[in-house]
């Protein structure tokens, strides 16, 4: 059978997505499967059972990352795919799960067609991608790739007080395989994921060839002015923390518009003290979230923001201090692999668009290790991290078929 004719079984993919969605299912739809809870264990057991049914060698590492390997004619690093099966507490059926179950579907399709490959293939799911119970997010892939050390991850305490290491032990997923071996294990990495944004649907596009993940800069500003009577303090005598906060809010919107391109800017948190109708606020805490796919532009946005903050503090007679809450550089995926995914999608009759990922994903941790890329399929209404998350079966199927062809080419059909 020629490998070009191979197609995944959409019904089987759909059934597995539904079955996994039953683990931690919420009444009325959606799923709550926070990392390392009983529901996560139930989901893990189900997926590991499927991996074994496919005849793959199962490897569970010391952080509970699970890898199913299909042998190639040659030994050595595997062409990898995968994602995560943990969800937020009001999650949908597709975020993460699609990437793992489409990987299994690819393997099953190859098994049934009797296709052998030179390089091994592997499907992985990584512990605690969401970060909803334990910070940081992408914990499993960070440890798998050596960005985060195992001991730190194991000691991490969750929002409910439980520790990662204890919870892994409790649900039986503290494995033996060593971590930080991505360089020996991965020849390439492709992750299929739902877009979780509105772009593909609004443009009427079926497949996104993801070029990278945008960089993130989170800063918290603490603005100190002077509280005083709103009726007796003339305008010229005020040190108004709220005014400075409002100016920063307007400035970042204008900054993003002026820089254009892929610059995003958001003030998502703003708290006034004392927060009373007739008192000039003496303290405001606000956050600025800057994102860009280009590190130079992101640095420029930060520099302009800090310059403006300094100027506004001086002009308004307030003091403003700041601290960084998060800073990630943008990640660029492998240009040749992105181009190949784009071409495969076109050849299979899909509309395609290149786009950056607005959210973080496990795949980004592999970008420094091996050729890496992602495939997006549309999210209905751009909605994710929500029980109403939905992707049409036609789109799921198309994404999985692009994944199949891309993995097969990388693994070299024998
Ligand atoms: Zn995800």
Topology:
Elements: H1 10-21, H2 38-53, E1 57-60, E2 66-70, E3 78-83, H3 97-113, E4 121-125, H4 139-144, H5 150-155, H6 164-171, H7 182-185, E5 186-194, H8 199-203, E6 207-213, E7 215-224, H9 241-259, E8 264-273, E9 283-292, H10 295-316, E10 319-328, E11 331-332, H11 335-347, E12 352-357, H12 363-366, E13 372-377, H13 393-411
Parallel strand pairs: 3-4, 3-5, 5-13, 6-12
Antiparallel strand pairs: 1-2, 2-4, 6-11, 6-13, 7-9, 7-10, 8-9
Helix pairs in contact: 1-3, 3-13, 9-10, 11-13
Bound molecules: zinc ion (ZN).
Zinc ion binds at residues 84, 95-96, 129, 193.
CATH architecture of the largest domain: 3-Layer(aba) Sandwich
Q: According to CATH, what is the topology of the largest domain?
A: Aminopeptidase
Query: What is the β-strand count?
Result: 13
In helices, the fraction of residues equals 25-40%
Mean pLDDT: 96
Strand content: 15-25%
Tell me the number of helical segments per DSSP (H or I, 4 or more residues long).
13
Q: CATH homologous superfamily of the largest domain, by name?
A: Zn peptidases
Named once each, the bound ligands are: zinc ion
| Secondary structure category | alpha/beta
Give the termini distance in whole angstroms: 12 Å
Q: Describe the main β-sheet briefly.
A: 9 strands, mixed
Radius of gyration over all CA atoms, rounded: 24 Å
> How many domain modules?
2
Gross morphology is elongated
Low-confidence stretches: none
Quick one: CATH class of the largest domain?
A: Alpha Beta
Instruction: Give helix and strand order, one letter per element, not per position.
Output: HHEEEHEHHHHEHEEHEEHEEHEHEH
**Assembly classification:** single chain
